[in-house]
Amino acid sequence: MNEKDKVYGVKSPIQPDENSTFVKASDVEISQNNNFDFRIYNELDDFAAEVLEGEKLLDYINNRREYFFEPKEAIFNAFGEEEPGEAIETFSDFYYQYLAKKADSFLYKFMSKGYTEGLKKLVEKKGIDPNKLDVNWESIKSKEEKYEESLIDILYAILNYELKAYGMEIFGINMGYESTLYFIIPEKSFLRLNKEAQLFTIFDISFLETIYNEIYEVTGDLGIENVEIGDFIEKKDDNEYHTLFADSSKNCIIKDIDEDDETMVKIIL
After folding, report:
1. Residue 257 binned pLDDT confidence (cut-offs 50, 70, 90)
2. Alpha-carbon span 39 to 33, nearest angstrom
3. What is the reported pTM?
């Protein structure tokens, strides 16, 4: 299993460390449900407070509390007659799907397409005109079938840079499901997030830098078959750059690229 496969199959623990200091829940609450350690929703509540605002946060708190005593009622109140995206069997299931439905978020299911449009709509939800960002939405959308799953990470990196001008951060979380849930929040809120949370993994630039080497966008004619302006390549070794096409027969290794010449390549990640 390569590093990228490990990332897209990441699992997060469901139980806290025995030395956890989570103390928000009362002893009465803990004693009333022996199947769940109420202390662990401390970090989930803290996270929800950063991605939900106003009435949405209050509704979450009420639904969360109800779930532990009347789960069926809580699920109905949260989702109504609508069937949740996946079966809800644990609080983690409920929490993840609740955020996917109620928060300004984009749920990306691994290996699926349509993520360019999904992230574009997420930008719009945050009151930002996506057409004012230096993102070639149509070009990236046209590459979804052509590229490996790494393309969504490349789009994320481009968006991350562009949104900083608005004081915003984009990031994703994984809670052990075959998906990533993306959010855009103010930078000050992002800085408050617990990056060492036990119940979820945060997908941000620093995380992606641990699984990729440098990624470049091709900005000029490299004279290589199948490689066009607007394509992306990953630097693997000191002098080798690999294409990222889904069809392995079309992939190639390119050498002798001048990284400082932005008329030929531009660093993305």
Report:
1. very high
2. 12
3. 0.84
